[in-house]
């Protein structure tokens, strides 16, 4: 798999998310400042709630801008290096189920499809990311999924 293409796809998704949050923040800001939404009494909180919503969406948009910037500057590891930021890691459970994970600096939890394979972006601060960092093919990791612990073998690190 071409990790540069994966990073491009992540940046494309982040840009789409940024546009969505920017649009939503503008809409919430317009609602917060619209003359019809000014409070009639102390219990009328529509404008205040809209302003909180606009601020939250603006904050999320800023986080996405940061993620885009970081991904554009990401230096991908060379083949043969242990799992780290920028690595594509395939893990397999004893029952044969496999997962392919991209260790990214930010935007954990994002799922993308690449060449017919679903990839999940994880970060080094996530439980699974902490387990994978520095590991090589053949190593085992134990991952908690709810109350269960599942042992995976690292099949491939790219």
Helix count from the secondary structure assignment: 3
Gyration radius (Cα, Å) is 20 Å
C-alpha geometry: elongated
Q: Helix fraction?
A: 40-55%
Order of helices and strands: HHEEEEHEE
Q: State which percent range the strand residues make up.
A: 15-25%
Write the layout of secondary structure elements.
Elements: H1 3-33, H2 46-72, E1 88-93, E2 98-103, E3 111-114, E4 117-122, H3 127-132, E5 140-145, E6 148-157
Parallel strand pairs: 2-4
Antiparallel strand pairs: 1-2, 1-6, 3-4, 5-6
Helix pairs in contact: 1-2
Structure description:
- There is one protein chain.
- This protein is of the alpha+beta class and 158 residues long.
- It is 41% helix and 24% strand.
- The chain has helices spanning 3-33, 46-72, 127-132, and strands spanning 88-93, 98-103, 111-114, 117-122, 140-145, 148-157.
- A hairpin with a 2-residue loop joins strand 5 and strand 6 (148-157).
- The longest helix is centred in the first third of the chain and has 31 residues, at 3-33.
- The protein is elongated.
Briefly summarize what is shown.
The protein is of the alpha+beta class and 158 residues long. The chain is 41% helix and 24% strand.
Features:
158 residues, Chitinase A, domain 3, 2 domains, 3 helices, 24% strand, elongated
